[in-house]
Every structure is written in C-alpha cells, then in structure tokens.
C-alpha cells in the first residue's frame, strides 16, 4: 500500500484554483460503504515497479559484464518469446482436444437418447442424461475456482489488463492458476454453459510468459534456470506477459497481428519497436505451432489449415456495395444497444452476487443452477419448436431427427447440441433456408439471457463466443429479413455476411474493442476487403455503447476497486496542480540510517517507497519540506538488506551483489519475517549503493494532466514532488491519480473523486 496519508490543508488553495473543473466528491451515508459500489478504490492493491532502479549495483554489473552481456540478454529474450509461443499453443491444443473428446462423448450419447425417445412420455430420459452430463462436467471446474484459485474465474482478460497497467493482482500469474484455468475452461464448455475457451487462452498465455521468463516456479520447485535470473524484475516480466497475452490471442483466433494489437490496445502502458517485433514473433510462433499440432491431430500433417481454436471457416463471397454500409452502421448501433443492456444487466447481477452469494458453496450452487437451466430450456425448445431441413444440405456433426422425416434433421436442435463455436460457423456458412425466424427469435433471446447470467460465475469461462454466437444469430435474422423483403437484390441474398457483421457488432458492443477486434476478425475470416465494414460496425457499436455505460471489463475492474489508470487524464483538470492531490506528509530516510529506525519505519508504515534526503531547516513557505532530495529506496530493498545483514557497508559495491535481490524475487519476505538481535539493531545501513539516485520528480506546481501522462507513460509507482530548491514536499502514487475518474452517462460526463478504503 504505497500511497502516503493525504493532508487536507490545501483545500482553500484547491477551491481557488479549481474554477473550471467540478469534481464530485463521493461520500457515503454514516460512512457505510455499500457492497458492489464502483465509487471506491481499495488500498490493498499495490503497484508494480516498472521503473528500473538505476542504482550503483546495476551500473556496476553493466560495467563489469560489458557488451557481451547485453547481447546475450537480447538473444535470451528472443528465445524466451519463442518458447512462450510454443507453450501457449500446446496448452491451447490440450484444452481443445480435451473439449472435443469429452463433448463428442456427451453429444453422441445425447443424440442416441433423443433419436430413440422423442415422445413426451419418455422425454425425461434424454433430459436426465443432458442434465447429468452438464452437472458432472461443470462441478470439478467450479470447485477448483471457488476453493483453490478464485482469480482463475472468468476469462482473465480484466486481471491481465490490470497487470499490464501496473497493478499487482495476487496469484494472477501463478502456475496453479494456469492449471485451474485449463481444467476449469474444459469443465465449463463441456458443462454446457454459455461460454467459450478463447478468452481464457489470453490469461493462460500471460501465466506461461510470467512463469517461464523468470526461470523458476514456486509450484515447480525443481525449475530453476539461472540463465533467466537477469529478467527477474517487474519491468522485464511485464514485457513477457504482453507477449504471452498476444500469443494467447494468436492461438485462439489464428491472428498474430490481432494479438499484438490486443496487447497494445487493451493493456500495455509501455511500448517500443523492439517489443513489437518480439511480441509479433511470439504470436506467429504460437499460431504456427497450434496449426501444425492440430493438422497432425486431424491426420492431415502439413496441411496447415487449422488457423486457431476458433476457426470461422472459409468465406467465399464477402463482397459488399456502398449502400450496404448504412445497413452495417444500423447493425453496429443494434450491437451497441444490446451490448449496453448486457453490461447494465450483468453489472446489477454482479452486485447481487457480491452482496448475497458471497460464500464458496453458494457460488458453486449458482453454477450448478445455471448449468441445469442451460440443459432444461434448450430441451424444451428442441421439443416444442420443429424445424426440419434436408440432411445433406449442411454438415452438422450431431443431426437430431426428432419429429422430422427420414433424411431430415431438426436444425434448431443442431444449434444447441454441438459446441458453441460450431454453432457460430453454422450461422456463417449454412445455406439459405436452413434457419427460420420462428426458431431464431427464441434462440437469440434465450442464449442472450444465458450469456448474461453466465458471465461472472465462479468458473473459468470466456466471453467472446457467447457474444459472437448471439450476434451471429440476430445478424442472420437481419440477413433473412433482407432476403425476404428485397428478393430481387442479389447482393442482399447473403445471410452469412450479416451474421458476421452481427457477431462483430455484439462483441464490440459488450467489450468496446475496436482496432484489435477488427484485425482479429479480418485474420479469422481471411478477407481483407471486408475490413472497412467491420471497422465501421465496431466503431458504431462502441460509440453507441459508450453513450450508456462502460465496457464490461471496465465495469468489473471498477467493482473490484482496482486503481486502473485510464489512457487520458480527466478533462478540464489543468486547473489542479500537484499540491491539490499529492500525498503529504512524507516519511523519509537519510543516506546512512540506523537499523532501529528502518525497522521501526517498516513496521509502522505501509509505504513501499521512501525518499532519501539530507535534512535541512524548514523554509517556512507554507508547505513543509522534508529535506533535500538524494534518491528513492524501496521497501523490498530495505528488507533484503536487513535479511542479509548488510550493515556498516560503505558505497563500495564489491562487497554486495544485485543477485541478492534477483534470487528472492518476486516473493520478498515481510519485515515480521526478519529477526535481529539488539546488537544488530544498533548498527547502521548505508542506503546509497541501493537507492535510485535519480528518481523521477516534478515541481509542486505541475498540473494533473502533466503528472498523469508522466506517470502513465513511464509506468511509475512513485513520483516525488519537490519545491524550487529540490526539497521533498510530497509524493504522488497511483491511487492519488486513479481516484479522479471520469464518468459518462447518456451523453453527459463529469469527474468524481473516489473514496479509498483499506480492505
């Protein structure tokens, strides 16, 4: 908890300066903070140290090892990114094959029962089979998430986004999280929930990247690659996690470029050309590895036609004419409206869960209820709505005859009794006449409600497939309507085209992704000429959705109280200078400090960074100063010094080594784990070799936008505020900036100041 206590003595100055910006201060009645509010930030979320500490130890290492060391480091980076791509693809292959095998067994048995008994008197038998398969499959996944690793719930995209933004989320990149994630997503998809496996691949790639790049694992204790110890810091790990997330996108959709843009658009606070090349390399390796493995698994080695876990198939005719762009805009608006309602309803549902379903067993019970409903309603629809088509018209994997004649099958049943991604392809490629309005309308309504209910359950589950499937269904409806009412227009007689536009609009309306999602869909469809319609659709969906509320990932991040920094500072905030939002007073240390005081400070303060100063006489200018700035020392550095009893050592760095810190990273002990004798407490610590002698600083009259952009672009954790004579007067941390949040509703916007709570 790195931020310092705020001093409210500057309120008068704040009111004088802040004339053009109205900031709504969030207050709660009787100081009782309601569960599920988005108007808080939690003090427990800490930041990462993306700013490299250029202390004497780092400089000494660079001088001793020279250029060969830097060259080896660059080579190792490329090797690690390559391995990240391969391992991410292999995890995706394992998940995909597991889902294929288990679901094939499930749907084959279910088909046998439905074909054998379609009369009302014995429909309970296929229903019990369907229900049993769902409950048995989904139970182990939800138990693992609820009791073993809760952070593995959902797609993982929000937590990866927070990590790349610079926030520490406990257990997010643990190997145990990967295991629970992989098992959980297989369990959820086979269990019949309205979810997919593509989103969790992004989190899986991030975990693989974070673990392998460090060359060690707490879970796999035998793994200790000392050659990778040079990458054991937050800054290096962040870059590898960016590559892992991109490799996950590439494995899921066969979209290497889309993976790179996803990491850039959705998370990364830092980017450069070299990182772009390495991430693109990892994404390409991931897509290639998955392609090769799946081609071999399907007995077509070398065919290389399996582009990703979600294969949209080949689109032969995606031509469009200029007037159709207006139709695409309308569909984008529909996607934005449906996405806004999705987010609004899921927000309310999530708040209900936080307030009333707050124990592991209740969470497991809800998952079982949703799984049961996901079997009950589809069976009722399959039995009650008959839609027969010729068996040879479409290659459905599990054709259900039901009330149909020989040589026919129930096309509505095929939408439910197959994997969701197969249903998406059905809407894209089934011939005209396969689906009818009478069955599509109830299907869209039911699946839309189930997808809202499913997201946020205590399971590992992705959001992409439910949105794509819902959008493809209502997009197909629009295509059928256009074909029916304009029969003489050949360009409109292509429902598959509108199914693709509907899928993009629905997904864009929920997650509000634009650039990366456009490229992902272009790569997945293999049609660059359709890029403009997709871009127009996604932009319209985003603009319409943003008119009503935030994107779904942002809503869940705000509900968790995570201090995520937006891309831009609050509007009209130039009137706020650093004195209005900095933390004050500040706990400082001297260059040579007694062990006793250091221990006392670490035990009585929760801060993670301490300015190192030379004491001076106060200037009396109205804001207290705490000494002339010399540098910045971190809590972890102080703890390692105490743990290794580095006492009374001068600035001669030959006696110490930077490997002391890399060896223990990232699991640093706490001050309560350090045992010191009375004699050791009387020793002193020389902080100069360990501190950062040139931390980033700003003058106390700097504006909030300037501080925000500096903090955001550099990935800082601490920013020291100094006066004209370089004396420390305050500190700026993430929460000091994140507490000012822009709100938008029905075309209006403003700025509110959130409340920071301890838990």
Please outline the major beta sheet.
Answer: 3 strands, mixed
Strand order of the largest sheet: 1-13-12
Q: CA-to-CA gap between the ends?
A: 11 Å
Give the radius of gyration. Answer: 28 Å
Fraction of residues in H or I helices: 40-55%
Number of strands: 14
Portion in beta strands: 5-15%
Uncertain runs with pLDDT below 50, 5 residues or more? 5-19
Total number of helices: 25
The chain-level structural class is mainly alpha
Q: What would you call the shape?
A: elongated
Mean pLDDT: 87
Account of the protein in words:
By secondary structure, the chain is mainly alpha-helical. 53% of the residues lie in helices and 8% in strands. The chain is built from 25 helices and 14 strands. It has helices spanning 11-17, 56-116, 124-147, 157-165, 175-190, 198-214, 234-253, 256-266, 273-297, 324-356, 360-384, 411-416, 420-429, 437-454, 464-485, 495-511, 515-525, 531-548, 552-559, 595-604, 635-643, 659-664, 678-681, 704-714, 734-738, and strands at 23-25, 40-42, 388-390, 408-410, 592-594, 609-614, 628-634, 684-686, 697-699, 718-722, 728-733, 740-745, 748-753, 755-757. The strands form six sheets. A three-stranded mixed β-sheet has the order 1-13-12. Strand 12 and strand 13 (748-753) form a beta hairpin. Mean pLDDT is 87; it is low at 5-19.
